[in-house]
Design goal:
By secondary structure, the protein is an alpha/beta fold. It is about 40% helix and about 15% strand. α5 crosses α8 and α6 runs antiparallel to α7. The longest helix is centred in the last third of the chain and has 18 residues. The protein is globular.
Length: about 350
Amino acid sequence: MVEGPRRRPVRAVRLRPVGDGELELQYRVVHGYRRAFRMAGEGPALVLIHGIGDSSETWAELIPDLARTHTVIAPDLLGHGHSDKPRADYSVAAYANGVRDLLTTLGIESATLVGHSLGGGVAMQFAYQFPERTERLILVSAGGVGREVNPVLRLVSLPGAHLVLSSLRLPGMRTQVGLAVRLMKLLDTDLGQDAPELVNLVDALPDETSRNAFIRTLRAVVDWRGQVVTMLDRCYLTEGMPTMLLWGDRDSVVPVRHAFGAHEAMPGSRLEIFEGAGHFPFHTDPARFVALVEEFTASTDPADWSREHWRDLLVEGPDTSRTRTVERDLREASERSAT
């Protein structure tokens, strides 16, 4: 564990139980599209943003514990879960706008953002676009740090990907995929750690509309060479914002080296590594995940944003030598892993 932002003593909190009814999906229509979300608890707002192909269901087992001390909001991003899946803009910036607009309809002015994978990129983009509404950042196996990403995602970004995804749902294919997954786990590969979760994501794409939304989202952030968006050029703007990075050391989707690169590029950030965990550390060790989130939010002050501070950061700009070093190290590691 690496120390991060200044901490204050952990506050005493009053825990409250969460009723089953609070965990049910709710809906709001924003810009003419239905947005699904889960909302539970009371207290400081905590927004949970899922990854690509996933939904708020991924957080379901954690929400009751987190909602004892927070108002938890877990949306299904547009094109995912039970939200509408229009032919629309599925860029990271558009998702950040969508999170802002949903929070506005719910009367929530600011929040701590927890983002997993693609959701980590969305959380970081939200903090960049709306710093005055961001209290803290918790990035979990986040995308947008380096080019390197699982080759399967690079493959699915190519033309004809919808045929590949459709074929995985043909009779008999599920059995073959299941055998391959068991073999990877038996061989104790890193991909074997994540394969069951990744297969579940494919199962969550039951029709052509869902698959098209998935592919449009993927192509906004990944091409055949890897990730096409980066947060490294703006990481310096998190100075003064409590930020925690959580990563599995056996992540086969976004390698753990990205965690160290992001930590190096984000002044004052805190890094926690989940040993033996893959791309979903909050599934591997949910108790530790909840404890870290609760301790971090209780022991750090929300970011004190001001126009003057934001302007000063922009005028001063990043430490380019540090950013270039991080980018070079990640690029060299990516090239080595591809040979």
